[in-house]
Structures are given as structure tokens and as C-alpha cells.
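Same chain as my last thread, 882 residues:
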Amino acid sequence: MEAGGTFSVPKTLHIMSGGHIKTDPSSVLEIEITGDFIMDDGAKVSGTTNAANETAATVLITTTGNVLLKGSGASGAIISMNQNGPSCSGGKGGKVDILSTGGNITVESGAKVTVDAKCPAGEIELKAPKGLVTIDGLLSSESKLTGTGGNQRPGGGPVTIVAGCDLTVGTMGIVRSKGRDPGADLVHLEGGCDVAVLGLVQSTGPGHAVPNNPVNHCNNLNRPDKQSNSTACVEIWSGGTLTINAFDANNGQVNADTAQSGGHQRSWIDMFASGNISIIGDVAGSYAVHANQSVTNADGGIITVKSVGGSVTTSGLAVQANATKAGSRGGEITIHAGGAGAPDGNLDFGSSSIQARGGNAGTFSSGGTIEGVSFTGALLGTVGGQLNAGGGVPANGTVTLQSCVGTAYNGAVTPAVTINPDDCAGAVSLPAYVVLPTCSCGGPPPNGSCPVCELDGGGMPVTVVVDQNTTVDFNPAIPACVGDADLCAFFTYDKTGLTPDTWKGIFDLGGKKLVVMAGVTVKTAQVPPAGSERAAPGIEIRTTCEVVVELSAVILVESYNDKTGDVVIHADGKITIDGEVTNRVTGTLGVPGNITISSYCGDVTTGPMSLIQNIGIDRGGGDIIIASCCGGDVVLNGLVLARAKAHATGAPKPDIYIAAFEGDVVVNANTAEPFFDEYNPFGTKYDIFPGVLSWVTHASNPGSVTMQASGNVEVYGHGDDATPPVRPSFAAIATGTGTSNPRGGKVDVRAGENAIGTDRALESFGNDNLIGGIKLWAGGDVNLARLGANNSFGPVVDSAGSKKGGPNEIRAFQGAITIAPNTLVDASAPVLGVNLLTSCVGVTNSGTVSPPDANAADDAGVCAQTSPAPLFADCKALGVNN
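reply #2:
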């Protein structure tokens, strides 16, 4: 490219191994790509200079798709804008700026992005505002520059990584700014959803010569609350959770050590998150987060850890800001948790080690400061932990702890701890310049561009219509797709696992819409095709557009006496299931895989005749997950059934998870006639109505139903079958077992706004329901009503049993609980269960609560927590891979 320039590439740019894009030093090369940017192991992009007085090139790469720098571990793709001169006389490292406007950025192990220099190092920016960033390779801005007197240039350069979704520094990843006498510069990590540091993040170097030409980004001109002599710094901002994990095979470490030689200045680390923060240290070696100094008369670093809306937990060798040589002062450690109540807002030190130790000799030696505060929860710590701010003669550091609902720290504290009285009035505060990101992940319009559909000339989605039965067959040496040619055109497969149940047929339609027509079956063939044990590989369907499974269409994975793989249907847009999705094991051996149906930013809707079922036998059952991840509702009009005998020892139980992370969940089971009339799986006939049912038929340990929505949860139940004969039936959301001594399972429903339950809405069924029960929590109001004409339409909330009743917990965090006339909330049994009604505004009970509310004192005025803690932070926590 010689003198650089701007180049537009209207499709994916793929640099193969041995390929090399080279631009001159001091040039600016700008590449604008409509598509992906892929560099193979052995590919290069460079603008390096070998002159002492020259600046390396600047490269600006913008893509609409994904960025992938491949690596094998030992080697990989290389982007280098280095200044490699024999000395420094005015030169500088270059700049690498990579922006993916609509995709992800991945740097694999062995791949490198470097702006290293003999003079000041250059700058690295990687940004994926709508996607993921994963770093398993090396990002390096390292300078070999030493002190230059009164006119001091910087050392290591700034490194910035921003992800709209998750940001992960993998176990082999290294992100570093590193220098010598002038120190390093700001390393800024920012993730809209979750941030995980499993590798090394560092801003480090002796740093005893403060840069002034120009200043670095660590000082108070860029960060007004910091000290002007800061020569190393790391800040990590997360819109979701933040995890530093150094335990076991992980290598998570945040390092802002300075003053390894020469004099000393200061360094700092900020870790801020909207959600939970976890610092998981190892049992030996370096601390997970550390800002230490090693010379005499030094100062430990300043480390600040704050969760605005979650908890903070630490374990192992967690946080360290030491300066233990003669005349040195320990650092400053501040850890605050601001989640709503206990345990969601707890600060739990566990048995971890937190140190801010100073020197024990010399005139100015003193211990540091450790401050821990839980603003609305508890502060905890166990025997074996330590909070050590020792230093000075006598020890004169400070350790100060405070919480809202109780401080119980039982570890060792040096010097003596100050425990302030409980106080729930405050809140976590951040510097004014900190704006924590939100978890956008592309998001729906108008703010995002999800879903992305390929359009035809009329502006309608290009549609793949499947009108022929289709089978994926793994029995040939090369797996084959047989049947509908339009669908098979998108067939790929994954056969890396050792057994057929780990294999899967993959249909990735890109931006095309999928419609599976009525009467069509898409399935996998059993492996082997004959014999007494035949496994079934899984099916995975993906599109950035929409999916429709029409009435009587079937997606099927079915084995005989062996395991099945997973069924995965994922679309960025809406998903409509009017037909059947089944994962089933027949015979007596084997366990089914899971069913996952998820939309990135659209609705998931099932029709009145739809059936989503996971059927296991003796060895246990699989799970069902239905989720709308970033914007959309989940509306269930048909039957979602997870059933298994599950009587083998250790057999997994069938669990169901329903979540709308930016919308409502609605269950419409209010039909006069059952979905299955005279349902007879094992000799007893049932009426099975639409709804959500987890059912263990031959064992005493039940499965569960878990449901959450950021908006409303609405559950509309039913009564008995309107047409005789009337058989036993279950509520709209139900879980339990069917043995001689059946036990109810757990139903956990949480709404960020309001919750509505009508007729037979929620049930934990069995004789003994003590281990199960029902939790119905809402941020706003809870409204329960029996609308049907007779008692068969109740109870609305039911954990009654013939032996032991279960617990029913109903809570309105900022609203009221209303129980309409003729409405029954039931936990009755010879051994009574417990009904617990808790609200902010009050309880209006015009129906019956049996037994009565166990604590009427909290029926009103309990308003400290604004909404229920989510069961899952996002789709990733549910195991959904967007």
C-alpha cells in the first residue's frame, strides 16, 4: 500500500497465510470492509519502521461484520505498527484502530496486535459496539524508553477495548501497556453485558518519571479524580457482571505494579460494574488484582471496586496494594456493593486475602486503608480470610467495614477493625466521567439493527421454504442431508465429539427467513441405523432473520436406548412455533439432550396447537429453554412439556426455563378443552392442558419451572375439562412427580413489573410438597383471581398436599398484592405448608389464603428493594449462544 490511503472492499477481506498488507511508516492506511475481516495464521498487516526518528504507520480497519485474527497458540496472524529503531530520537509506535460496526472481534491464541517502540509506544483500539470481543492472543503497547529529564515523553501507550456485548480476555490472552522510566498508560476495558478477565491485563513499569510531553491518560487531566503523578492505570467498566478469575486453569490477573526500580509515583485500578463483581484469586502466586510498589519510601496503589447494582464476592488471593519496603505506605483499597438487599447486595469477602500493607521500618512507614461497604445488604467474611492494612510502628493502617443489614466478618484483621453501625441510607457513587455501558448486543430498532434480514427486490425477507421431509444422516463417512434441496443447501455439521449424541447437523441460513411448511418433518437419522442401541445427533438452526414452524410441521431428534443431541433454534428476529419440536428417547436407556429456542431481539410465540416436548425415560430427562434475549416477549399458547421417568440413580430431572430479558412472558392455558384428552403415558389417564409442565413420572425427586421477565408475567389458567370424562390435570405452570409418594417441584416466577395469575395458574403437585413450593415475585403489583364459574378453576396458587404442604411466597416489591373474591391460595395439608405474603403498598385479600399469611407484619411497608433479583443475568447465563 506504500503511502497508505483509503480502500473500500465491498465483500469479506480474507488474508491467507503468507499474505501481507504493508504500508509505509508514518502513513495512514484506512480499509473499509462490507463484510468480515479474516486473517489466517501467518497473515500480516504491518507499517513498522526501523528508524530511530520515525513514527510507525496508522491502520484503521472498519468492518460491518466480524473480525477474526486466527492463531494456533504457537503462532498466528500479526498486525504490527512497531518502531524498532536501534535507539530513540523522536520516533514513536503507530496506531491500530479496528472497528466492527455490526459483528464480533476475536483474537485467537498466537495472534498479535502490537504497537511497541524504542520511543513512546503507540495506541490500540478495538471496538465492537454491537458484538462480542474475545482476546486470547496478545495486544501490546510496550516502550523501551528511559528517563529523558525535564522534557519527558510517555512510555507504554493506551489500549482500549470496547464490546457492546461480552468482553472476554481468555486464559491465554494478554492485554498490556508497559514501559520503563515513564511507566505505562491507560488500559480501558468496557463490556456492555459481561466482562471476564481470565488472562493478563496490565499497565505496568517502574514509572518514576512522570510524562509531560504529552501527559499520559492516567493523570488528572484525563481522569480528574486521580493523582497527577499516576504512571500506570487500568479501568474496567461493565454493564453487567465483572469477573476476574485466577483459579485453577484460569490466569486472570489485573496488574498495575510500578516502582520496581528507581523512584516511585502512583498507580490505580478501577473496577466498576452494574451487576455482580467476582474476584477469584488462586491459592498461591500473584494476587488476582494488584497495584504494588517495590522500592523504599513508596506508596501502594489505589484500587477501587464498586458494583452499582449487584454484589461483590472475593476468594483466594484477591486484592493487593502493598508497599512493604522501609519508609513505604500501604495503598488504598475501596470495595462497595450496591445491589438491592441481601443477598443481592452483599459484600462477601469469604476466606479471601485483601492486603494494603506498608513498611515496618523507616520514618514514614504506615499501613494502608481498606474500606468495605454493603449499602443495602450484609458484609460477610469467614475464618481463614484476612483484611491486612498493617504497617508502621505501631501498626497504623485502617480497616473500616459497614453494611445495611449486618456485618459479620470472622477473618483476621490488621490492625483492629472499625465496624460502623448499620446504615441503609447511602448508595454506590462513581466518578462523574464514568458512564457504565448498557447491554445492547445490537438490539432491536430504533436503537439497534437487529434483526438483519436479507431482502428481495420487493423489500421482503428472502425465505427458505422447506416443503419436503428432510433427514440429516451421520451414518455415511461424510454426513449427508437428504430431502429438501433448499434447506440442504445450508447444511454443515459438527462431528468433533466422540459420540453421536455430541454431533449435530447445522443449518445456518445467514440473513434468510426459514419457513418449515405444514406436514414436513426435519430430523436426524439414528446412529447406527439398526440395532438395540441407536443414538440421535442433534439439530441446530440459526438465522439472523426469522423462523416459522407451521402447524403439523415437526423438528425431531429421537433415539432408541441411547442418548440424543440438543435441538437448538435461534433467530435474531421473531420465532413462531405452530407445529412440534421434540427431543425424545425411546426404550429404557439413554438421556435426551436439551431443547433451546431463543430469539436475540424478537418475540417467541407458540400457537394453540404447538407442542414443545422433551421426553426422557428411566435414565432421566433433558431441559427446555425458551428465551427472548435482548428485546421481545415470550407468548406460549400451546404446551411446553418436559417429562421423564427418571428413576435411575442420579438421573437428571427435566427442568424448564422461560425468560424474556427485555419483555413480557405470557402463558395462555385458558382453554375449555385439554391439549391432550385422555393422555395415558403409563396407565393412568390425564387431561393435559396447554401451559408449562415439568413432570417426573417414576421417581420422587421433581424437576422445576423457572420463569422471569423484565416486564410482566401473565399466567391464565383453566378449569376442568368441559367435556366428560374429567381426568386429573395440572395448572398452567406446574411441576411435580407421579410416584406412590409424589413430591412437588419448585416453581419460581419473577416479574420486573407486574404479575397476573388467573384460575389454575401455578401448581407444585404431590403428596409431600415441602421441598417444592411456589415463588411469585413482582416489582410492581401481584393480582390473583379465579375467573371461572366453579371451584375446578382453582386454586390459583397451589402447593397443597395430602401429607405436607409447600411454601408459597408471594411478594410485590413496590406494589400491592390483590386476591380477588373466590380466589384460593393454598398450602394446606395435614402438615401445613406456609403462605408468605409481603408487599410495599399492602395486601387486599378478598379470597382465601390457607393457611393464613404467616407474617402479617410485612404485608405493607417493605419497600427497600425495588424489584426481584433476576434468576439469570442474561441469555448467556442460560447457556444460550447468540
